[in-house]
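Researcher: I'd like a structural prediction for the single chain below. Treat it as a standalone chain; there are no partners to consider.
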Amino acid sequence: MRTLLRAAAFTVAALAASAAAHAQQAPVKAEAAWARASVQGQKGTGAFMRLTAPHGARLVRAESPAAGTTEVHEMRMDGDIMKMRAVPALDLPAGQAVELKPGGYHLMLLDLKAPLQKGGTVPITLVFQDAQGAESRLNLTVPVATAAPGAAAPAHDHGHKH
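Model: Treating it as a single chain, here is the predicted structure.
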């Protein structure tokens, strides 16, 4: 009887762990993620990607140990002036890809603890909320580059040697 109870307890614990692990998996797919390289003394940089939520969700926050603060930002034209501001959340309509890109919605990594070097990576965690308010997290390891993957290299090199 004691063995049967232990087996039942183990099964319940395994199912609970499995449910907890499933609940932690974000229902959102991130593609083509990258973060812009920074230089010594630079306090902030952007991270970009394409997010798709099959059932809809909201990106409610982002976190990175590489930055003191990580925010979801929007850049938009206000008349003839480009303005950038933090947004409290970003809606991800069901099945529609949402681009986080330079000049639009993006992540800002602020108060960088060290420069992000081209060829390196930066950990970023995205936190989503579904229609019922349940949160899920997506942990990413994002490559650091000077331009989006697959983008043409800048035509000028400012005298830098490669």
